[in-house]
Amino acid sequence: MNLPIKLLSFAILATPFVAKADTLDFTLSGGGDTFTFSLPSNPVPGSSSNGVSFTLSNIPITEGAVSFTSDITFFNINDAAHPGGLMFSLPIAPPVPPTNIDLTGDQTYEPTSLESAPVFAPGQFNLTDGSPKGDDDFTLDIASEVPEPSSITLLASGILALAATVRRKRAVS
Fold it and tell me: Taking the complete model, does pTM exceed 0.90, yes or no?
């Protein structure tokens, strides 16, 4: 392999890959329940209060075979009234009012982002149920549909190694 091709190959492999998912999958588990929903990594809130919270409206949520929509409010960890976590409502047949799932704990969005322009990142967050449903511990997993940068780098390295092996075999023959 000549020098320019080697330098180009090295530059490509040395460049850091940035994983950026457009949509993130949320799985909230605890108290015998599992709720799933998907949100954009950079949602546009229906309402927000910087330093306190933001609300995303009419989010489709699935619990087992049941699907419903609810507004989801995400709270800032520094909010004294509701430190971190999130809240949404479970639908119940009228005349009984809906039950809120009210969880406090870790801040579930990037602490450097404003509530008016929040940014979610993949990760696992520990939350505690403070709602009438009980005091169960919940885990919120935010997963990206984009492969990790290290996986992309490993794949590229493997392809280059295969190409080099094939080229050497042809040169020897």
Answer: no
